[in-house]
Amino acid sequence: MELPKSVHYVGADRWVLYGIADCELHAFVEADKHQNVQRLYWIQFESYLPSKPDLHHTYDSPRRARIGGLDFYVDTWVKLTNERITPGSDEEHIQSLIRRRRYKMPAGMMSVRLVHLLDEQKRKELMFIYAEDVAPTGFTAAEIQASQSAIRNAKSAFPLRAYDQWPAIEKSLVERAERKIKIEF
Predict the structure, then answer these.
(1) pTM
(2) Are 130 and 176 in contact (CB under 8 A)?
(3) What is the mean pLDDT of each run of 10 residues along the chain (185 residues)?
(4) Alpha-carbon distances of 161 from 106, 111, 140, 147, 182, rounded to whole Å
(5) Helix H or strand E segment including 149
(6) Strand runs (DSSP E) across the chain, as ranges?
(7) Among candidates 107, 111, 171, which has minimal Cα distance to 139?
């Protein structure tokens, strides 16, 4: 796996996620001189425990990407940094790593999750999350979230500043993620 030369390695963590999966994550950031995170690169390996033979990953995103000859499911979202984080989650672990290294997260991030299932039984996955500060779009995370909700619900009865812009912003975000993450065998 190859990431841009401008990234800084934040660290790794390994634990049993929710008592069902062996989880290992690695965090990398691109930050300014004040340690404000501009971009986050989150690499995660996850495998259901042998004691949980009935569990399988079920991704249903219709969007796909091909990186290094591997097929990935693609999802996107926008989140305010101060939104509630589920205790014990992988998100809690990544945020903890970032804080311990004294990096500061922006007010909102827009993220792309790329997931490749490593086995036919769909019990092991490789996940990349590429996230960027939402501020350079000219919108707040809350504005984009409202637009996403309106798009999902096919409602635009009230003016949403980011409504017409989100599809292009999202497309560009996914394209950057695909360019910045390289995999070679």
Answers:
(1) 0.91
(2) yes
(3) 94 97 98 97 98 95 93 94 92 95 96 97 97 93 75 54 80 95 84
(4) 21, 20, 10, 8, 34
(5) helix 141-152
(6) 8-17, 21-31, 37-48, 64-67, 70-80, 108-117, 124-133
(7) 107
